[in-house]
Amino acid sequence: MFKPWLGLLLAIPATAQWSRVAFSGKGESVDVPQPHSLSYFTANPFLRDDGGDLCVDCSPQGRAKSALEYSIQPLVRPVGVLAGYRVLDVLYSVGKRNDPSRNEVTWKSILVQVGPDRYKEIFHLQASGGPPSLKPSSIINSGNERVLATMDSDGGNGGGCWEGYWWFDRAGPHPLDFTRVESAMQQRIPKQTLFFGSCSDLDLKSQLIQSGVQKAHAECHACDWVGEVTGRFRLAGAVAEPIAIDFKPGGP
Q1: Is the pTM of this model over 0.70?
Q2: Who's near 84: CB < 8 A, 6+ residues apart?
Q3: Which end of the chain is flanked by fewer CB atoms within 10 Å, N or C?
Q4: Where are the domains of the chain?
Q5: What is the per-residue pLDDT for 104?
Q6: pLDDT tens across 203-248, in order?
Q7: What are phi and psi of 39, to 5 degrees?
Q8: Can you point out the beta strands (E) in the chain?
């Protein structure tokens, strides 16, 4: 059966230098992904253990031993189509074989199709020790733009998360650039203070960043809040353009 999105893919240049961001037990890293078949990401998930989170010895023999201890079940989930590119999630349920009740989605890959059975991974998350289960990514309408978004809490009390946001054109995915709006917000708040502006502070649907403002050298995580800053923006492609910035002094 003819698939309309496949015709679009065949007309799209797949040579752009895309970036892939990966989060694992080794921290955060960025590299340039190569295209692979879908089975590359699903047939043997232990080979996708970028951080070596499940093995002490990550040789082929060591990974084989890991497969005896752990179970990884991949689920491929369609996300949608942006600028002619089909986007998929691969959600990996990871657990110990001796405890099947603890089998939760703690790995996530976001794939972009660039040709017949050819996919590039733009996001890879291994949230070992993080929240109970990762959420699928989604496509969000932000003003006149459509954006691919993923955001999962890191499970801590500091409001941190693993996140990624991309705008697409014919050249492929472009990470959203909040540099201009963040710079405008920084100029509006008092000196020697900071704001965060990511994770739950960012509302793409409302095109709004709303964050508490804290002294740069606060005595504790919950101390020395001096107010709240709000930045309204408009997406122009992948760039967030500031529209209105407001700072309100006061404590929590």
Answers
A1: yes
A2: 5, 8, 9, 11, 12, 170
A3: N
A4: 4-175, 179-249
A5: 85
A6: 999 999 999 999 998 888 888 999 999 999 999 999 999 999 999 9
A7: -65, -25
A8: 20-24, 27-31, 70-82, 85-96, 103-115, 118-126, 138-142, 145-153, 161-169, 172-175, 193-194, 202-203, 208-215, 225-236, 239-249
